[in-house]
Amino acid sequence: MNDVRRVRATSDVQNAFHRAARAAIATLPPGKAIVFVRYPSRSLQSSSLALTRNERDLGSAQRWVVYDRGPRNAELRAVAPDRAAYLLDAATMRVERLP
């Protein structure tokens, strides 16, 4: 029975994390955007907690949710200058507009 509780607790944490991220991203104004996700530690980058995703059709996707690469973010922004850029801090679920 302990295994079932542990699996459910882990699933609850994962689901809450993803719900919080979706809610934070939903606060963005309409329009195409790139959301760079900054994880506070390696543990949050595990596949179960990863927020990044691959879109089927990048051109029509409203939100690109990608890993924060620091200074290398400029490379992706240069490819899509028409998209607003945001940073999502996965530790606090705060979103800020990047200049």
Describe the structure.
The mean pLDDT is 85. This protein has 99 residues and is an alpha/beta fold. Strand 3 (84-89) and strand 4 form a beta hairpin. The protein is 32% helix and 21% strand. The chain starts with a helix and ends with a strand. It has a four-stranded mixed β-sheet with strand order 2-1-3-4, covered by helices on one side.
The best one-word shape is elongated
Stretches with pLDDT under 50, minimum 5 residues: none
List the secondary-structure elements in sequence, H or E.
Answer: HEEHEE
Report the sheet-strand fraction.
Answer: 15-25%
Question: What integer value in Å does the Rg equal?
Answer: 15 Å
Question: Could you outline the blueprint of secondary structure elements for this entry?
Answer:
Layout: H1 2-26, E1 33-38, E2 63-67, H2 73-79, E3 84-89, E4 94-97
Parallel strand pairs: 1-2, 1-3
Antiparallel strand pairs: 3-4
Descriptive tags:
single chain, 99 residues, alpha/beta, four-stranded mixed sheet, 2 helices
